[in-house]
Amino acid sequence: MKKSFLLFNLFLLLIALSACNKKDPNTIYIGASPTPHAEILEFARPLLEEKGYKLDIEILTDYNTPNIAVNNDSLDANYFQHVPYLTQWNTDNDAELVNVGGVHFEPLGIYSKNLSLSNIDNWNNTTVILSKSVTDQLRILKILEKNNLIDLKPNAKITDNVHEAIEANPLNLIFDYENEAKMLTTLYDSTSHTDNTVVCINTNYVLDVKLPSTNRILSETVADASEYVNIIAVQKGNENDPKIKALIEVLQSDEVKQFIEENYLGAVLTAE
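^ thats the sequence. predicted structure below, dont judge the formating
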């Protein structure tokens, strides 16, 4: 019943998106996550108007609908994902969406109310809560390895569970990795100040709930994971559409970079 309800809602959304029918060739129809993607697009709106294009932003909160909508031509583009996610989505859905340019990077962070790196011995038997995204899981494992908490296998990969990638786990970390990404902040709120628990949270959800950065004990840098820059994706063959070129030019402009730097204070980084 629940699955049928979700599919029905998705069907209604796609009908609504199709109703736009791209009647205005000078309007860019784009789907985006609320934070920071839609906020960045709102800042870019007047810059695009100077180039003769209007921006129609459809805010989407899941990680599947935006690609479906671009693939069926309901939207011109979307802005919510990185290349590894897009590559996997194309494979799973026999699609050919393409990356036309990177805009920003959202460093994955590890948050705790109790633990820090000041005494690694305190991490014994710590529960590490992750999303069920295989891509995010590997990113988190790389952060843990960089900080000497685990050792990864050479060319580590994950297909079914995080343990496949781990060579050594001397602190007996316990991995809880079957969680929806959007639920991670709620799971963090449910932990106490005495729990040996860390929660690995995507930056967009951190920004949504204004989670204090003081509770972030570990984080990526662009140098750690440049392949995870968030991109604009379009249908293959639309890469050279003038309005898509204008969109990328604006989103990679100095004005947008300055907006990101001044408004997100390191929680979101500009693409290098």
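Residues 184 and 201 are 6 Å apart (CA to CA).
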